[in-house]
């Protein structure tokens, strides 16, 4: 039976041992859900892996009530699949699903940008928060703490949506936030981290300061969609798979 404990120790940011209580700023179930999402993002929990309530409760030093609430929350968001007699398993995030999350994300951020620019121009002190997040990002990258770097990245883009004041955009973006965390975390893992993370976000911040709407639309698209599957890659992969199965050589 597959248990929660991964074959390799999870990243330090994921280790939760008995001690100080979780923060009161968010519900306990929400914090448990975020812990699970961080585990999926870091690769500590594999796609398809079963999560055991008792193991989670012991690891996090909480009762099974918030664990069950967290599992239901993540099931509703499509991050876990729960089936009778089989329990909760991490949902698969294939290329198509990841692309769809990216497309929804970039559409929401592009909707947010015009109003966000107006807010930043009228309240330039808000950009100080963006600078702080870039510093946090750089610090995390220097320590190769890719979970912390990913969280700073997520908050940077959240600030853009919040600055728009568009409650629909904000609500929908938050609904995608955990999916974004997983996809971006797996991207960082696949490339062994991203030492240019701050540089990439510096470009976005410079365009915000300039009020360059067109430039931001282009930069955000490049920034978010850089891992998008390309049809030619899918065809190439399909040919490779067929060749492997039939003994063909390229």
What is the topological layout?
Blueprint: H1 28-42, E1 50-51, H2 53-60, H3 64-76, E2 80-83, E3 87-90, H4 95-122, H5 127-142, H6 146-164, H7 167-190, H8 197-210, H9 213-224, H10 231-246
Antiparallel strand pairs: 1-3, 2-3
Report on this structure.
By secondary structure, the chain is mainly alpha-helical. It folds into two domains: 12-90, Winged helix-like DNA-binding domain superfamily/Winged helix DNA-binding domain (Arc Repressor Mutant, subunit A, Orthogonal Bundle), CATH 1.10.10; 95-229, Up-down Bundle (Four Helix Bundle (Hemerythrin (Met), subunit A)), CATH 1.20.120. Helices cover 66% and strands 4% of the residues. A three-stranded antiparallel sheet has the order 1-3-2. A hairpin with a 3-residue loop joins strand 2 and strand 3 (87-90). Helix 1 packs parallel to helix 7, helix 4 crosses helix 7 and helix 4 (95-122) runs antiparallel to helix 9 (213-224). The protein is elongated.
